[in-house]
Recover the amino acids of this structure.
């Protein structure tokens, strides 16, 4: 199966508060550098499948999803994968309904059972639309449960959920394997990697990894921890994400090792 025109675009690279942070007048929050302006974390993966159909897969739907989609001029969404159930990774889901209109079809979503249950509670108007008082316009979504280690094939590209720990909360990242193309891993909101996951992070072309700030944090990697993990995995290229406003892009990026960089909103990796 031939996959062409594969790319990964960072829709957002910021922590849950985004950057700039409300009420903050620090140097990063007031910076004119667009690389210091970070929407909440999400990525889109785009490719052309073996039938010459363009495909778009989203990982997470941040509260900034509408703005992100408009900025990147996305015109379709073929599936959504969720890493976990936190607000900054799920609360843009309602905006998906406009893709239902333009594509005239439902959209598959994939998540662990705990995340699917959370989405069902929060977006009850979507998943139990028959209970709505009015005949509301809601997203048309097909829930699919996934489990760590069980690969799913989406239009010819393989997505393998991998177990990560976000503090005490078990979440998933994703390994993405393109036939005849790159292998990458998307690991947001990480504080540690359990033993069973390390083999799934071997032979990567691109590693996308959580790196919140310089100081220790109980539920996210700091810079030293992220660099240590990168050195153990040895991908060809690493991009750090989920950064707070203490991270000034140009200064920090210039001090990173070779083939390790800060991601920024709108960065496209091919």
């Amino acid at each position: 199966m031939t996959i062409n025109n594969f790319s990964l675009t960072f829709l957002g690279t910021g922590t849950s508060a985004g950057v700039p942070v409300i009420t903050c007048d620090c140097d990063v929050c007031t910076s004119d550098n667009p690389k210091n302006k970070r929407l909440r974390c999400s990525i889109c993966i785009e490719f052309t499948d073996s039938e010459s159909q363009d495909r778009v897969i989203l990982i997470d739907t941040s509260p900034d999803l509408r703005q992100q989609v408009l900025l990147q001029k996305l015109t379709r969404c073929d599936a959504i994968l969720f890493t976990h159930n936190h607000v900054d990774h799920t609360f843009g889901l309602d905006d998906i309904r406009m893709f239902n209109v333009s594509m005239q079809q439902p959209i598959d979503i994939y998540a662990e059972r705990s995340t699917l249950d959370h989405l069902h509670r929060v977006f009850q108007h979507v998943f139990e639309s028959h209970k709505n008082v009015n005949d509301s316009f809601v997203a048309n979504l097909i829930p699919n449960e996934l489990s760590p280690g069980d690969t799913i094939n989406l239009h010819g590209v393989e997505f393998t959920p991998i177990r990560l720990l976000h503090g005490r909360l078990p979440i998933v990242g994703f390994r993405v394997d393109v036939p005849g193309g790159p292998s990458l891993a998307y690991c947001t909101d990480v504080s540690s990697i359990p033993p069973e996951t390390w083999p799934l992070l071997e032979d990567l072309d691109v590693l996308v990894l959580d790196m919140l700030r310089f100081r220790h944090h109980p539920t996210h990697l700091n810079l030293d921890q992220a660099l240590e993990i990168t050195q153990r995995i040895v991908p060809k290229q690493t991009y750090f994400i989920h950064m707070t406003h203490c991270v000034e892009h140009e200064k920090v990026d210039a001090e990173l090792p070779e083939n390790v960089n800060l991601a920024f909103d709108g960065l496209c990796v091919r």
